[in-house]
Amino acid sequence: MSEFRYAVNVLPKPGILDPQGRAVELSLPHLSVTTVSKVRVGRRVELTVTAAAEPEARAVVDGLAKELLSNPLIEVYAIELLEGTSSVTAAGAAAK
Amino acid sequence: MKIGVVTFPGSNSDVDSINALTVAGVEPVTLWHESPELGGVSAVILPGGFAYGDYIRAGVIARFSPVMGSVKDFAASGGYVLGICNGFQVLAESGLVPGALLRNRSLRFAGHLVNIKPERLDSPFTRAATGEPLRVPVAHGEGCYYADDATLDELERAGQVLFRYVHDDGTPAIDPDDKANPNGSLRAIAGVCNAAGNVAGLMPHPERMSEEVLGNGGGMQLIKSLVESAAEWEKAGRPAPQLRIKVEAAR
Question: N or C: which end of chain A has fewer CB within 10 A?
Protein backbone atom coordinates (compact mmCIF):
# COMPACT_ATOMS: atom_id res chain seq x y z
CA MET A 1 0.00 0.00 0.00
CA SER A 2 1.14 3.52 -0.77
CA GLU A 3 0.08 6.96 0.30
CA PHE A 4 -1.14 9.47 -2.23
CA ARG A 5 -1.67 13.11 -1.38
CA TYR A 6 -4.20 15.11 -3.36
CA ALA A 7 -5.68 18.55 -3.54
CA VAL A 8 -9.30 18.96 -4.52
CA ASN A 9 -10.00 22.44 -5.88
CA VAL A 10 -13.66 23.40 -5.80
CA LEU A 11 -15.00 26.47 -7.60
CA PRO A 12 -18.46 27.90 -8.25
CA LYS A 13 -19.70 26.75 -11.66
CA PRO A 14 -19.12 29.25 -14.45
CA GLY A 15 -22.03 31.64 -14.59
CA ILE A 16 -23.20 30.92 -11.04
CA LEU A 17 -23.40 33.90 -8.74
CA ASP A 18 -20.28 34.10 -6.56
CA PRO A 19 -20.86 36.79 -3.93
CA GLN A 20 -17.41 36.21 -2.41
CA GLY A 21 -15.71 36.73 -5.76
CA ARG A 22 -17.76 39.87 -6.25
CA ALA A 23 -16.77 41.17 -2.82
CA VAL A 24 -13.10 40.63 -3.62
CA GLU A 25 -13.54 42.52 -6.90
CA LEU A 26 -15.23 45.38 -5.09
CA SER A 27 -12.21 45.65 -2.77
CA LEU A 28 -9.73 45.99 -5.63
CA PRO A 29 -10.15 49.76 -6.10
CA HIS A 30 -9.11 50.21 -2.46
CA LEU A 31 -5.81 48.57 -3.39
CA SER A 32 -5.55 50.74 -6.51
CA VAL A 33 -5.66 47.56 -8.60
CA THR A 34 -7.41 48.12 -11.92
CA THR A 35 -6.14 45.20 -13.99
CA VAL A 36 -7.84 42.31 -12.17
CA SER A 37 -11.28 40.98 -13.04
CA LYS A 38 -13.39 37.78 -13.08
CA VAL A 39 -12.50 36.78 -9.52
CA ARG A 40 -13.96 33.46 -8.37
CA VAL A 41 -13.54 32.25 -4.80
CA GLY A 42 -13.53 28.53 -4.13
CA ARG A 43 -12.23 26.03 -1.64
CA ARG A 44 -9.17 23.79 -1.61
CA VAL A 45 -9.11 20.54 0.34
CA GLU A 46 -5.91 18.50 0.73
CA LEU A 47 -6.04 14.88 1.78
CA THR A 48 -4.01 11.66 1.84
CA VAL A 49 -5.36 8.34 0.59
CA THR A 50 -3.83 4.95 1.31
CA ALA A 51 -4.29 2.60 -1.62
CA ALA A 52 -2.50 -0.05 -3.66
CA ALA A 53 -2.32 2.12 -6.75
CA GLU A 54 -2.97 5.68 -7.83
CA PRO A 55 -6.10 5.04 -9.95
CA GLU A 56 -7.69 3.37 -6.94
CA ALA A 57 -6.76 6.30 -4.70
CA ARG A 58 -8.02 8.77 -7.26
CA ALA A 59 -11.36 6.97 -7.46
CA VAL A 60 -11.79 7.45 -3.72
CA VAL A 61 -11.00 11.17 -4.02
CA ASP A 62 -13.33 11.50 -6.99
CA GLY A 63 -16.17 9.90 -5.03
CA LEU A 64 -15.58 12.22 -2.08
CA ALA A 65 -15.35 15.26 -4.33
CA LYS A 66 -18.70 14.43 -5.91
CA GLU A 67 -20.53 13.47 -2.71
CA LEU A 68 -19.12 15.72 -0.02
CA LEU A 69 -16.55 18.27 -1.10
CA SER A 70 -18.58 19.78 -3.94
CA ASN A 71 -22.23 20.15 -4.86
CA PRO A 72 -22.51 19.29 -8.58
CA LEU A 73 -25.54 21.61 -8.88
CA ILE A 74 -23.49 24.71 -8.17
CA GLU A 75 -19.80 23.78 -8.17
CA VAL A 76 -17.10 22.14 -10.27
CA TYR A 77 -13.96 20.47 -8.94
CA ALA A 78 -10.53 19.42 -10.16
CA ILE A 79 -8.26 16.85 -8.56
CA GLU A 80 -4.53 17.44 -8.36
CA LEU A 81 -1.97 14.78 -7.31
CA LEU A 82 0.51 16.40 -4.94
CA GLU A 83 2.71 13.53 -3.74
CA GLY A 84 2.90 9.83 -4.45
CA THR A 85 3.57 7.67 -7.43
CA SER A 86 2.44 9.20 -10.71
CA SER A 87 -0.61 7.56 -12.19
CA VAL A 88 1.35 6.08 -15.14
CA THR A 89 3.95 4.42 -12.90
CA ALA A 90 1.31 3.25 -10.46
CA ALA A 91 -0.81 1.74 -13.20
CA GLY A 92 2.30 -0.01 -14.60
CA ALA A 93 3.22 -1.34 -11.16
CA ALA A 94 -0.30 -2.59 -10.58
CA ALA A 95 -0.26 -4.46 -13.90
CA LYS A 96 2.87 -6.49 -12.96
CA MET B 1 -49.52 12.14 17.96
CA LYS B 2 -45.76 12.62 18.06
CA ILE B 3 -43.63 14.79 15.79
CA GLY B 4 -39.86 14.52 15.89
CA VAL B 5 -37.35 17.37 15.91
CA VAL B 6 -33.78 16.48 15.01
CA THR B 7 -30.90 17.94 16.98
CA PHE B 8 -27.61 18.12 15.09
CA PRO B 9 -24.46 19.47 16.71
CA GLY B 10 -24.99 23.17 16.05
CA SER B 11 -28.78 23.13 15.81
CA ASN B 12 -30.18 26.16 17.62
CA SER B 13 -33.81 26.29 16.61
CA ASP B 14 -34.72 22.80 17.77
CA VAL B 15 -36.13 24.17 21.02
CA ASP B 16 -38.19 26.78 19.12
CA SER B 17 -39.64 23.97 16.98
CA ILE B 18 -40.37 21.87 20.05
CA ASN B 19 -42.14 24.86 21.62
CA ALA B 20 -44.22 25.47 18.49
CA LEU B 21 -45.29 21.82 18.40
CA THR B 22 -46.21 21.95 22.08
CA VAL B 23 -48.31 25.07 21.45
CA ALA B 24 -49.95 23.21 18.55
CA GLY B 25 -50.91 20.45 20.98
CA VAL B 26 -48.53 17.81 19.64
CA GLU B 27 -46.09 15.73 21.62
CA PRO B 28 -42.60 16.72 20.46
CA VAL B 29 -39.91 14.04 20.35
CA THR B 30 -36.25 15.00 20.30
CA LEU B 31 -34.24 13.00 17.78
CA TRP B 32 -30.47 12.79 18.15
CA HIS B 33 -28.31 13.03 15.04
CA GLU B 34 -26.22 9.98 15.98
CA SER B 35 -29.20 7.68 16.36
CA PRO B 36 -31.13 6.22 13.43
CA GLU B 37 -34.16 5.78 15.72
CA LEU B 38 -37.16 7.96 14.81
CA GLY B 39 -39.31 6.72 17.70
CA GLY B 40 -42.50 6.17 15.73
CA VAL B 41 -43.08 9.85 14.97
CA SER B 42 -45.68 10.94 12.42
CA ALA B 43 -43.55 13.73 10.94
CA VAL B 44 -40.04 15.09 11.25
CA ILE B 45 -38.80 18.68 11.52
CA LEU B 46 -35.19 19.48 10.63
CA PRO B 47 -34.65 22.70 12.58
CA GLY B 48 -32.56 25.79 12.06
CA GLY B 49 -29.01 26.28 13.22
CA PHE B 50 -25.55 25.51 11.93
CA ALA B 51 -25.37 21.72 11.79
CA TYR B 52 -21.77 20.51 12.07
CA GLY B 53 -20.67 24.14 11.95
CA ASP B 54 -21.90 24.44 8.35
CA TYR B 55 -18.39 23.33 7.35
CA ILE B 56 -17.71 22.73 3.64
CA ARG B 57 -21.27 23.82 2.74
CA ALA B 58 -24.27 24.42 4.96
CA GLY B 59 -26.09 21.12 5.46
CA VAL B 60 -23.73 18.75 3.68
CA ILE B 61 -22.12 17.01 6.65
CA ALA B 62 -25.50 16.56 8.33
CA ARG B 63 -26.59 14.71 5.24
CA PHE B 64 -24.34 11.78 6.18
CA SER B 65 -25.45 11.53 9.82
CA PRO B 66 -27.18 8.32 11.00
CA VAL B 67 -30.49 10.10 11.62
CA MET B 68 -30.62 11.36 8.02
CA GLY B 69 -30.53 7.79 6.69
CA SER B 70 -33.72 7.16 8.64
CA VAL B 71 -35.25 10.48 7.60
CA LYS B 72 -34.62 9.58 3.95
CA ASP B 73 -36.34 6.21 4.42
CA PHE B 74 -39.18 7.91 6.31
CA ALA B 75 -39.67 10.39 3.45
CA ALA B 76 -39.51 7.60 0.87
CA SER B 77 -42.21 5.73 2.81
CA GLY B 78 -44.48 8.79 2.54
CA GLY B 79 -43.84 10.53 5.86
CA TYR B 80 -43.88 14.32 6.10
CA VAL B 81 -40.58 16.12 6.57
CA LEU B 82 -40.24 19.89 7.05
CA GLY B 83 -36.85 21.59 6.91
CA ILE B 84 -36.61 25.08 8.37
CA CYS B 85 -33.63 27.31 7.55
CA ASN B 86 -30.59 25.06 8.14
CA GLY B 87 -33.03 22.14 7.86
CA PHE B 88 -33.87 23.33 4.33
CA GLN B 89 -30.14 23.41 3.54
CA VAL B 90 -29.80 19.83 4.83
CA LEU B 91 -32.74 18.71 2.67
CA ALA B 92 -31.29 20.41 -0.42
CA GLU B 93 -27.84 18.91 0.14
CA SER B 94 -29.47 15.51 0.67
CA GLY B 95 -31.31 15.81 -2.63
CA LEU B 96 -34.67 15.47 -0.84
CA VAL B 97 -35.82 18.82 -2.24
CA PRO B 98 -34.56 20.40 -5.48
CA GLY B 99 -32.10 23.26 -5.75
CA ALA B 100 -29.30 24.69 -3.63
CA LEU B 101 -28.87 27.54 -1.15
CA LEU B 102 -26.04 29.90 -2.03
CA ARG B 103 -24.43 32.57 0.08
CA ASN B 104 -26.69 35.61 0.40
CA ARG B 105 -26.21 37.97 -2.53
CA SER B 106 -25.52 40.81 -0.09
CA LEU B 107 -22.83 38.69 1.63
CA ARG B 108 -24.51 39.78 4.85
CA PHE B 109 -26.15 37.56 7.40
CA ALA B 110 -29.88 38.23 7.02
CA GLY B 111 -31.55 38.49 10.42
CA HIS B 112 -34.80 40.41 10.27
CA LEU B 113 -38.52 40.06 9.60
CA VAL B 114 -39.64 39.33 6.03
CA ASN B 115 -42.94 38.76 4.28
CA ILE B 116 -43.58 35.42 2.64
CA LYS B 117 -46.69 34.31 0.84
CA PRO B 118 -47.85 30.74 0.29
CA GLU B 119 -48.15 30.07 -3.43
CA ARG B 120 -50.94 27.59 -2.89
CA LEU B 121 -53.20 26.63 -0.02
CA ASP B 122 -53.88 23.07 -1.15
CA SER B 123 -50.45 21.67 -0.22
CA PRO B 124 -49.82 19.59 2.92
CA PHE B 125 -47.56 22.36 4.24
CA THR B 126 -49.90 25.31 3.66
CA ARG B 127 -53.39 23.83 4.12
CA ALA B 128 -54.02 25.74 7.36
CA ALA B 129 -52.71 29.04 5.95
CA THR B 130 -54.99 31.98 5.22
CA GLY B 131 -53.15 32.95 2.03
CA GLU B 132 -52.26 36.38 3.38
CA PRO B 133 -48.54 37.29 3.59
CA LEU B 134 -46.89 35.99 6.76
CA ARG B 135 -44.44 38.19 8.64
CA VAL B 136 -41.71 35.83 9.84
CA PRO B 137 -38.03 36.11 10.76
CA VAL B 138 -35.07 35.01 8.67
CA ALA B 139 -31.68 34.27 10.22
CA HIS B 140 -29.20 32.93 7.69
CA GLY B 141 -26.06 33.62 5.69
CA GLU B 142 -26.71 31.09 2.93
CA GLY B 143 -30.31 31.35 1.82
CA CYS B 144 -30.11 32.44 -1.79
CA TYR B 145 -32.23 29.85 -3.57
CA TYR B 146 -30.67 28.64 -6.78
CA ALA B 147 -31.61 26.13 -9.46
CA ASP B 148 -31.05 26.32 -13.20
CA ASP B 149 -33.75 27.88 -15.38
CA ALA B 150 -35.12 24.55 -16.60
CA THR B 151 -35.49 23.33 -13.00
CA LEU B 152 -37.13 26.60 -11.92
CA ASP B 153 -39.60 26.36 -14.81
CA GLU B 154 -40.41 22.78 -13.88
CA LEU B 155 -40.86 23.64 -10.19
CA GLU B 156 -43.32 26.39 -11.12
CA ARG B 157 -45.16 24.17 -13.57
CA ALA B 158 -45.43 21.33 -11.06
CA GLY B 159 -46.52 23.65 -8.25
CA GLN B 160 -43.49 22.86 -6.10
CA VAL B 161 -42.79 26.47 -5.21
CA LEU B 162 -44.56 26.80 -1.85
CA PHE B 163 -43.44 30.24 -0.63
CA ARG B 164 -42.11 33.44 -2.15
CA TYR B 165 -40.72 36.58 -0.56
CA VAL B 166 -43.26 39.34 -1.08
CA HIS B 167 -43.75 43.05 -0.47
CA ASP B 168 -46.26 44.29 2.07
CA ASP B 169 -48.93 44.28 -0.63
CA GLY B 170 -48.28 40.62 -1.44
CA THR B 171 -46.48 41.10 -4.77
CA PRO B 172 -43.40 38.87 -5.11
CA ALA B 173 -39.95 40.45 -4.78
CA ILE B 174 -38.72 38.85 -8.00
CA ASP B 175 -35.74 41.18 -8.48
CA PRO B 176 -32.90 39.47 -6.54
CA ASP B 177 -31.66 42.88 -5.39
CA ASP B 178 -35.08 43.88 -4.06
CA LYS B 179 -34.90 44.62 -0.33
CA ALA B 180 -37.95 42.43 0.30
CA ASN B 181 -35.95 39.49 -1.03
CA PRO B 182 -33.55 39.01 1.90
CA ASN B 183 -30.94 36.84 0.20
CA GLY B 184 -31.31 37.34 -3.56
CA SER B 185 -33.22 34.11 -4.17
CA LEU B 186 -34.08 33.43 -7.79
CA ARG B 187 -37.74 34.12 -8.56
CA ALA B 188 -38.11 35.17 -4.89
CA ILE B 189 -38.35 31.54 -3.84
CA ALA B 190 -38.45 31.14 -0.05
CA GLY B 191 -39.58 27.51 0.09
CA VAL B 192 -40.11 24.48 -2.14
CA CYS B 193 -41.28 20.89 -1.87
CA ASN B 194 -40.30 17.65 -3.58
CA ALA B 195 -42.31 16.31 -6.52
CA ALA B 196 -44.35 13.97 -4.30
CA GLY B 197 -45.21 16.87 -2.01
CA ASN B 198 -44.32 15.24 1.32
CA VAL B 199 -40.94 16.92 1.89
CA ALA B 200 -40.66 20.71 2.08
CA GLY B 201 -38.09 23.27 3.09
CA LEU B 202 -38.12 27.02 3.66
CA MET B 203 -35.54 29.54 4.84
CA PRO B 204 -37.74 31.71 7.14
CA HIS B 205 -38.68 30.58 10.65
CA PRO B 206 -42.44 30.05 11.12
CA GLU B 207 -41.76 28.35 14.47
CA ARG B 208 -40.24 31.58 15.81
CA MET B 209 -43.48 33.41 15.04
CA SER B 210 -45.90 30.80 16.27
CA GLU B 211 -47.35 32.68 19.24
CA GLU B 212 -48.78 36.18 19.69
CA VAL B 213 -46.24 36.84 22.43
CA LEU B 214 -43.43 36.44 19.87
CA GLY B 215 -44.81 39.23 17.69
CA ASN B 216 -47.58 37.59 15.75
CA GLY B 217 -48.85 34.03 15.66
CA GLY B 218 -48.80 33.74 11.87
CA GLY B 219 -46.16 31.02 11.74
CA MET B 220 -48.55 28.70 13.54
CA GLN B 221 -50.50 28.39 10.28
CA LEU B 222 -47.59 26.42 8.83
CA ILE B 223 -46.96 24.36 11.96
CA LYS B 224 -50.67 23.49 12.04
CA SER B 225 -50.57 22.52 8.38
CA LEU B 226 -47.81 20.01 9.11
CA VAL B 227 -49.65 18.70 12.16
CA GLU B 228 -52.90 18.22 10.21
CA SER B 229 -51.16 16.50 7.30
CA ALA B 230 -49.22 14.18 9.62
CA ALA B 231 -52.39 13.30 11.55
CA GLU B 232 -54.21 12.51 8.33
CA TRP B 233 -51.31 10.36 7.10
CA GLU B 234 -51.25 8.48 10.41
CA LYS B 235 -55.04 7.99 10.34
CA ALA B 236 -54.89 6.63 6.79
CA GLY B 237 -52.42 3.96 7.91
CA ARG B 238 -49.22 5.66 6.71
CA PRO B 239 -49.83 5.37 2.95
CA ALA B 240 -46.91 5.22 0.52
CA PRO B 241 -45.91 8.43 -1.23
CA GLN B 242 -48.24 9.55 -3.91
CA LEU B 243 -48.68 12.93 -5.47
CA ARG B 244 -49.77 15.05 -2.52
CA ILE B 245 -49.89 18.22 -4.55
CA LYS B 246 -52.10 18.80 -7.53
CA VAL B 247 -50.30 19.84 -10.66
CA GLU B 248 -52.26 22.50 -12.43
CA ALA B 249 -52.33 21.63 -16.10
CA ALA B 250 -52.29 25.08 -17.64
CA ARG B 251 -49.80 27.31 -15.89
Answer: C
Q: Cα separation of A66 and A61, whole Å? A: 9
Chain B residue numbers with beta carbons less than 8 Å from the beta carbon of A69 are: 56
Question: Which positions ≥6 away from B250 have C-beta within 8 Å?
Answer: none
Report the 10 Å Cβ neighbour count for A88. 9
Task: Select from B3, B148, B149 the least CA-distant residue to B84.
Answer: B3
- CATH of residue A28's domain is 3.30.1280.10
Q: Which residues of A touch B107 (CB under 8 A)?
A: 19-20, 22-23
- Report yes or no on B205 lying in a domain: yes
* Cα gap B245→B124, rounded to integer Å: 8
Instruction: Answer yes or no: is B245 within a domain.
Output: no
Tell me whether B103 touches chain A (CB under 8 Å): yes
What is the span of the domain harbouring residue A78?
A: 2-95
- Tell me whether residue A16 is exposed, middle or buried, using C-beta atoms within 10 angstroms of its C-beta: 0 to 12, 13 to 18, 19 or more: middle
Residue B240 within a domain: no
Beta carbons of A92 and A54 less than 8 angstroms apart: no
Q: What is the pTM of this model?
A: 0.91
CB contact (8 A) between residue A68 and residue B105? no
Q: Which CATH number characterizes residue B203's domain? A: 3.40.50.880
Is the Cβ of B250 closer than 8 Å to some Cβ of chain A? Answer: no
Three-state secondary structure call for residue A81 = strand
Which letter does DSSP use for residue B160 in this model? -
What pLDDT, in 10s, does the model give residues B140-197? 999 999 999 999 999 999 999 999 999 999 999 999 999 999 999 999 999 999 999 9
